[in-house]
Amino acid sequence: HFHREIPEGLRQLPGPSSLPIIGNLLELGNKPYLSLTEMSKRYGDVFQIQLGMRPVVILSGYKTVKQALTKQGDDFAGRPDLYSFSFVNDGKSLAFSTDKAGVWRARRKLAYNALRSFSSLEGKLPEYSCLLEEHICKEADYLIKELQNVMTTEGKFDPFRYIVVSVANVICGMCFGRRYNHHDQELVGLVNLAEDFVKVAGSGNPADFIPALQYLPNKSMKKFVNINNRFNNFVQKIVSEHYATFDKDNIRDITDSLIDHCEDRKLDENSNIQMSDEKVVSIVNDLFGAGFDTISTALSWAVMYLVAYPEVEKQLFEEIKEKIGLDRSPVLSDRNNLPLLESFILELFRHSSYLPFTIPHCSTKDTSLNGYFIPKDTCVFINQWQINHDEELWKDPSLFIPDRFLNADGTEVNKLEGEKVLVFGLGKRRCIGEVIARNEVFLFLAIIIQKLHFYKLPGEPLDMTPEYGLTMKHKRHYLGVAMRPKDEQ
Ligand code: HEM
Questions:
Q1: What does the record list as coiled-coil region(s) (predicted)?
Q2: How far is the CA of 436 from the centre of ligand 1 (A)?
Q3: pTM (2 d.p.)
Q4: Any atom of ligand 1 within 6 Å of the Cβ of 198
């Protein structure tokens, strides 16, 4: 790359000088979102570092990122071929693989349509507006019972351990038409290994950039390969059961609808995208994987913030009590009516920025940005954390202040402010689960805040330092939770 001639009128990318072999890996450190935010102050919105053998372009600043991912979306819509990504979904991942534009676009559309139709489908019971709402309300009830049990027997609980099972069940319901109980060893074991996955899949993992490291013993990489295998086996078993019981006249869930699509495709002479059945059906791996870790991490952080800011928890409860009352459970259509809760969720996304970088992108052709030349096949990191903490966009960005998103009289969310929070990416690769995710985070929270009060346990200090990864998690923690007293209810 360094020897490529820069086309006339374009400039060479700025950036720090680098060491042989490792490049700038040491400067990246174990909190790359912080070190790269610092570097952006020095080198600007578009700069280049060297990670091992590879040059990597780092994008910061809302305007620059928006320009790259939306206006020049096709130029930046690729994924780099990283070693760790080759293990995800057996190399056939929709989100992580290097599928070329045509195949990726066709798969993305299939995934998007399947998600949309199965979340908005009518629920089985008339009291729910859609299947998504039905799954969430039922899982929230199970969760509340489970938390009461564990408080009775152990007097404390680990929020991620329980939330992840509830959230996994919602997406399991849509993808596979089934749920698991909170003590099912297979599911609980699998979803509680999410940390092992996200640590290695985070941007800037040395093994992805220094090929020699792939041949040395590497504990976290071993765990990563292992969890991917377990995950694929888990889904594969369910998919086989679906093939065995498939009935074209009774499409039960997303897996069935993908199998059905393969059948239809064989009859369609005009279908011009060549794709194996496996590439179609394995889309369900991505939906299940992306659908449980991201949302459970959000909710687990939410509970931590509720405990860290008890006065905020109180205001949120008061809002629900006043707007919904305590006689019925919240539903999705209450979302527009709870501006405090909406602001809390926005501030949680912004302040934690627990998805600090999007999944890495890759340039699909020679291009340029802000006057700098970027050659084809360059790996690109998008620093969402920087945007969410940019002092030019936010007042006191390091403080947790949900009210910053409310209008002057506190009755409505300021939509424009809310749109500045970047957690789902932008443009062509933007998250396809965003609508579901925002609804699900809202409804789970509304239900548990209405019924439960969370608190810090004596002798258990709250440590809110995130552990770096694709999604950043708080350390495993014990908290207390109680049903709200009957006179409140
Ligand atoms: C991609 C965030 C929930 C499915 C992404 C990306 C981000 C993201 C940052 C990468 C964007 C990029 O590379 O530029 C989130 C957050 C969630 C969430 C914060 C929850 C709060 C979900 C859910 C689903 C989902 C519930 C599906 C059930 C996907 C898929 C992709 C993706 C399939 C890959 C898209 C592609 O590569 O074209 N998400 N997501 N996500 N997300 Fe989500």
A1: none
A2: 11
A3: 0.96
A4: no
